[in-house]
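Lab meeting notes turned into a lecture example. A postdoc, R.K., suggested we walk through two folding results consecutively so the class can see how the record format repeats. The first protein's sequence and structure tokens come next.
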Amino acid sequence: MRNEYFNVMNELGFDVWSATPALESNCQHIESLLPRLQALSMRTHQWITVIGARREVIEQLVAAGISRTRIRWVHGRNQDEREWATEQALLAGTSSIVLSWLGELSPRMQQRLKMASKVSQTHSFVLNDLPSPTPLH
């Protein structure tokens, strides 16, 4: 399965091996990132930290070939806790990838996360596909 995702990566044109770690915000869905995450996770044995995600996301990562023993799953009760956990995970420098499910970020928080990602040389992805409220009609 690992080779399958690597081949998809090449077909999509991502150059994972020379990618500079950075904060990527406004990612819509985890499915589009799975090949890239799998390829990035093969480069190191550090944690893949997942913040604010549902259990299904962990299962998707495992199905993509990422070892469950390398996934650190952090819950956050609210936006502030998830933002704090994301910043701390980046600053700790113990993760190769930090995936966060955050709502709308203030420009200040975007800048803080971008700087933390740059300083720690950690790939960081902020997804915003939080479950939407039930429609009223």
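The second example is placed directly after the first for contrast:
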Amino acid sequence: MSNLQKLCLVYFVALMIAASLNYIPGLTDQDGLAFGIFALDIYDDALHVASALWALIAGLLSHRAARSFLILFGLAYLGDGVFGFFTGYGYLDLGIFTNPSAGPELSLPRLFANLPHLALGGVAAWAGLRDRRHTA
């Protein structure tokens, strides 16, 4: 199993944890905000579970599948995090279609709300794109 395949399995676990945040007592406040920072709804949970299953399948399938997952997932999540940082909502959970734009805001809460997608996406894209073992 290659390092990229192992990384996909780590992403599977991380994304399943993200999907379960709303269901762990004490992690959400009275307003439904996870860690008091961001709200997760059924669309977010579905996105995280689908992404986790994609990561699992890619990780178990092959190095090439893992690399493809990391690049595609990484760019999608990184873009979603950047978009969310500047508008308040992302596109992967359809938030831009169900909420009016909150406009750009340079604040710590906005950064922390989008940091998971920025970090997960950035690391995944970096790992997939820097891979020296390009398989044809």
